[in-house]
Amino acid sequence: MDPLLNKYYRSLTNAYGVRFVSSHGDEGVIDPQLEANLPLSDMLNLRYFLGDGGTRATAFPSLRKIATLDLDVYESTKVWSRAFFSDRLIAYDAEQDFVRLLKSGPGSPFAAVAKDDLDSQPELRSLASKPGETVGTVIVPATHYTLTSNTTSFKVTAPGPGVVVLTEPYVEGDFELTVNGKASSYFRVNSAFRGVLLAGPGEYEFSFRYWPRYFTFSLWLCGFGITLLLLWLGSAFKYSQREA
């Protein structure tokens, strides 16, 4: 599990109180209290859950049973879209403040950004609102997903200016983003995920491609090393021919 958790994702799960099985001896298992963890699970797009015959479904009003097999299968009715548009941003101070927003909210999607990140990106300020001022926020789910081993593409119809949230881990500089075929930038949103600023309404197509920031340099360095190796082998071969 450790290689899949970057520092932002780990900070979020630690602040929420969810524990993962890992190689570290001081970490335990996922918190068994599903009801407490449902807001985080919904944000992470975890739609289906399994339970045995003794599961008290009435304790989880947002889950509905969809099948009874060897185990009962439940579906969350409040799961967030993998990607969505929001016409507002909520500003928060620390990870614990974001966790409180997630736990105390109505369960519907929202977009939030840390104030430190907001200070470094003044273009986001026009969308920022306080935590209690989210009534009437417009949320539009993304459509037409295309997922490959290292790309995520989707479309969004934006009714106005706002942000698009993709609930996939944020890593600065390690993804190439195009919006309607043109290179664009992204920022950290909802603690550990990726956001894109939209200046106005329209039909947008997004494509994120994983391409680590130093990968191109590494390829050039590898090519240079191979070239030197071939030159050395060629020189060694010519020298051996002369000696013969």
Could you explain the architecture of this structure?
The protein has 244 residues and is an alpha+beta fold. It is built from five helices and 16 strands. The protein starts with 6 loop residues before the first helix and ends with a helix.
Give start-end ranges of low-pLDDT stretches: 21-31
Strand order of the largest sheet: 8-4-11-15-14
Structure classification: alpha+beta
Report helical residue fraction: 25-40%
Largest sheet composition: 5 strands, antiparallel
> How many β-strands, per DSSP?
16
- What would the average pLDDT be, to the nearest integer? 83
Strand and helix order: HHEEEEEHEHEEEEEEEEEEH
User: How big a fraction of the residues is strand?
Assistant: 25-35%
For the terminal residues, how far apart are their CA atoms? 57 Å
User: In DSSP terms, counting alpha (H) and pi (I) runs of 4 or more, how many helices?
Assistant: 5
Shape from CA axes? extended
Computed over alpha carbons, the radius of gyration is 23 Å
Secondary structure: elements and pairs:
Elements: H1 7-16, H2 34-43, E1 48-51, E2 63-68, E3 72-76, E4 83-86, E5 89-92, H3 95-104, E6 112-114, H4 115-120, E7 128-129, E8 139-141, E9 143-147, E10 151-158, E11 162-169, E12 175-179, E13 182-184, E14 187-189, E15 193-198, E16 202-210, H5 215-243
Parallel strand pairs: 5-6, 5-7
Antiparallel strand pairs: 1-3, 2-3, 4-8, 4-11, 9-10, 10-16, 11-15, 12-13, 12-16, 14-15
Give a quick set of tags describing it.
244 residues, alpha+beta, 5-stranded antiparallel sheet, 16 strands, 27% helix, extended
Summarize this entry quickly.
With 244 residues, the chain is of the alpha+beta class. The protein has helices at residues 7-16, 34-43, 95-104, 115-120, 215-243; strands at 48-51, 63-68, 72-76, 83-86, 89-92, 112-114, 128-129, 139-141, 143-147, 151-158, 162-169, 175-179, 182-184, 187-189, 193-198, 202-210. The chain has a five-stranded antiparallel sheet, with no helix packed on it.
